[in-house]
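Task: sequence design from structure.
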């Protein structure tokens, strides 16, 4: 899980994840969206892949990247496990203000 948080901590990597929400992209298409070197983008993609946030598949000379939402689902489930259970039902009188 440490790799996951490390990957999500960087704004460039979060932007890459946002790009991949619209669909799969190859490394060159991702690199075109940033004002940094291709090796730098490649490093970011590698960290995202190591964290399990993206999957890569080689097709010819290109490497295509796609989101792996399974890891995000697991993270969300883990985070939600810290949420306190709601103790009062929604229609409970204690949830309404009574004006006298």
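Answer:
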């Amino acid at each position: 899980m440490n790799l996951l948080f490390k990957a999500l901590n960087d704004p460039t990597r979060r932007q890459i994840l946002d790009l991949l929400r619209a669909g799969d992209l190859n490394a060159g298409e991702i690199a075109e969206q940033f004002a940094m070197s291709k090796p730098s983008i490649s490093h970011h993609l590698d960290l995202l892949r190591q964290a399990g946030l993206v999957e890569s598949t080689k097709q010819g000379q290109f490497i295509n990247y796609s989101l792996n939402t399974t890891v995000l689902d697991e993270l969300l489930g883990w985070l939600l496990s810290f949420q306190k259970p709601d103790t009062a039902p929604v229609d409970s009188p204690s949830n309404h203000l009574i004006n006298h």
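The chain has a mean pLDDT of 88.
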